[in-house]
Amino acid sequence: MSAKESPASPRPAQQTAPSDAVKDSAFLRACRREPVPHTPVWFMRQAGRSLPEYRKVREGIPMLESCTRPELVTEITLQPVRRHGVDAAVYYSDIVVPLKAIGVDLDIKPGVGPVVAHPIRTRADLAQLRDLTPEDVSYVTEAIGLLTAELGSTPLIGFAGAPFTLASYLVEGGPSRTYENAKAIMYGDPELWADLLDRLADITAAFLKVQIEAGASAVQLFDSWAGALAPADYRRSVLPASAKVFEAVAGYGVPRIHFGVGTGELLKLMGDAGADVVGVDFRVPLDEAVRRVGPGKALQGNLDPTVLFAGTEAVEAKTREVLDAAAGLEGHIFNLGHGVMPTTDPDALTRLAEYVHAQTAR
After folding, report:
1. Distance between CA 156 and CA 27 in Å, rounded?
2. CA torsion, points 252, 328, 289, 311, in degrees to nearest 10?
3. How far apart are alpha carbons 206 and 227 in whole angstroms?
4. 45, 83, 199, 256: which one is catalytic?
5. Which of 340, 326, 246, 346 is nearest to 40 (CA)?
6. Whose CB among 52, 54, 97, 119 lies 3.0–4.6 Å from 173's, allowing a Cys bridge?
7. Annotation marks residue 169 as catalytic
8. Among residues 54, 91, 169, 252, which one is catalytic?
9. Nearest to 106 by CA among 197, 40, 200, 171
10. Per-residue pLDDT, 19
11. What is the longest distance spanned by two Cα atoms in the chain?
């Protein structure tokens, strides 16, 4: 597909249709801004290092390898559903999986994160980014088939990294606090930047389509590092690529969630990109977030994940603040304002999910 073409977004016949019970789940109802029996709860990074059962099954298996083993992915994805009683599962993967699948030389180094062997700095470097095909990630299709058979009425959320965040890793060569190389291309060679993000938008859209067609009943686009941008730069240099991803999957009719960190100044723009649900980090109260986002969107969030280290009484008090701020929202999905931290007590998450359910029961 060329940079000028817009990907079609039909609802394909081969998509695994969610059951009526999944469609009527509290999570999907909240995404659609419909009445719910209770506020649904799930946690970003709910499947992962905070769980001893996760550490046990992952022992000795590199991160990216674990993402290619369907039975292991299924087990890890199900672990927090069993333990915490959350209202949705989130597919266990990593944002760089589609890049690895198309042959980009990268690895996830413990304590560091994704590291790219040959960073993209010139137009010639774009050759690393070929189209993603379903065959490249056949293990995703297999894993989601296994998961949907096990989850019953619990929805499965698919996810992918947004073009800007993927571009940041690819250009910097790894995690960055300043994004100096990425921003140098964005400001200094806007045509190369646009072509890079456009290509990543196609790859990301293809990855989400595989997940939806296999049975995911919602998708979340993580733009983890978009908070490093001023609104004008986001609008000009990032929003078009994210909008292309959302438009590419619009025809499937599944809710689309958009989340970034430190994006309080970007919330409306992130909604404008095409999201049905806007994720809010812990820096902006939800009643203020709804004012910034505007009508017609559900919100997701936004307890500070560090509160979970403060004890049950403090957790419940801060959770009550979040729920009170969300009281007037058309649709609210309770989540943390970022991911579960690795040293979080799993029992604190279980108690939190139970508390939200009890406090919001209709």
Report:
1. 10
2. -100
3. 25
4. 45
5. 326
6. 119
7. yes
8. 169
9. 171
10. 85
11. 58
111 band by pLDDT with thresholds 50, 70 and 90: confident
| Alpha carbon of residue 192 to chain centroid | 26
Beta strand 106-109 with 113-116 is antiparallel
> Residue 360 is encoded by which pair of tokens?
């919001």
11, 32, 49, 292: which one is catalytic? 49
| Residue in 94, 189, 233, 304 annotated catalytic | 94
Average predicted confidence (pLDDT) for the chain: 95
Per-residue pLDDT band at 15 (split at 50, 70, 90): low
- In three-state secondary structure terms, 243 is helix
Residue type for 297, please?
K
Alpha helices in 67-189 (DSSP H): 70-84, 97-101, 138-151, 163-172, 180-188
Q: What CA–CA distance (Å, rounded) separates 105 from 88?
A: 33
Q: Which pLDDT value is given to residue 12?
A: 44
Answer yes or no: are the C-beta atoms of 114 and 169 closer than 8 Å.
yes
Report phi then psi at 294, rounded to 5.
95, 175
For 74-89, what is the mean pLDDT? Answer: 98
Told to judge if 58 belongs to the known catalytic residues of this protein, a careful annotator would answer yes
The single residue of 58, 83, 199, 256 carrying the catalytic annotation is: 58
Question: What does the pLDDT look like over 211-270, one tens digit per residue?
Answer: 999 999 999 999 999 999 999 999 999 999 999 999 999 999 999 999 999 999 999 999
Token readout for 299 is 């919100």
**Which pLDDT band holds residue 16 (cuts at 50, 70, 90)?**
low
* The two structure tokens encoding residue 257: 């969630």
